[in-house]
Amino acid sequence: MFILNLPPSGLSLTPGKVLCIGRNYAEHVREMGDVTGLPTEPVVFLKPSTALVASEGEVVIPPQSEDVHHEVEIVAVIGRGGKNIPEEQALDHVGAYALGLDMTARDVQRRAKDAGKPWAVAKGFDTFAPLGPLTPAAEITDPQALDLRLTVNGEMRQDGRTADMIFPVAWLVSYLSRIFTLEPGDLIYTGTPEGVGPVTPGDVLEATSGGGLAPLCVTVRG
Ligand code: MG
To answer: Which positions ≥6 away from 44 have C-beta within 8 Å?
Structure first.
């Protein structure tokens, strides 16, 4: 089972809900050809915890897809639970941050979108939620001042800044807590900047951040 280890406390958490935010960076909304304009409310979807895979692990392309995309994201790990959390107190409920990948079967997602169906299948395959080592929230003075980059085989594909989020982390924690009771170990994948694209077997995906988050590296398997 996947365990969240929170240094330096040694605290271990079992991952809970994997909450994900879609369309949280304007340039990514545009690259996806979204004609409805920028969202006034975030898109929320969930992945099963069986999608989690640790750094140095493998992303497996499922037989149901021929177009799996990378989406590098900042992940907020809930350390203290709550319901109806005010935005001003929201960051106190984040115990750690990490780099993550919201792997997406784009062809499956496109068919679901066209049919008005949910994204659970496109987003929820095993290994579709790589998660890097956790960095204690106390070491991150401002989650809106982080960089997030992704290279594929050493080539830069995504290079974003959390300052460009449409809905910032504190706002998201507060918003989500009004829908779902948040519990320790819940994860929030906060959306991807522009530059998403397909992966193929053998690719090495490396996510890094200039803001002090530990790197995440996974290999793609067919
Ligand atoms: Mg995403």
So the answer is: 19, 20, 21, 22, 176, 179
Distance (Å) from CA 13 to ligand 1 centroid: 23
Tell me the residue range of the domain where 132 lies. Answer: 4-221
What's the 103 CA to ligand 1 centre distance in angstroms?
7
Tell me the pTM.
Answer: 0.96
21 CA distance to ligand 1 middle (Å)? 6
Domain count, the chain: 1
Q: Give me 24's structure tokens.
A: 């949280």
pLDDT reading at 178 higher than 90: yes
CA 114/CA 54 separation, integer angstroms: 32
Strand, coil or helix: 88: helix
For residue 204, pLDDT over 80 is answered with yes
CATH number at residue 146: 3.90.850.10
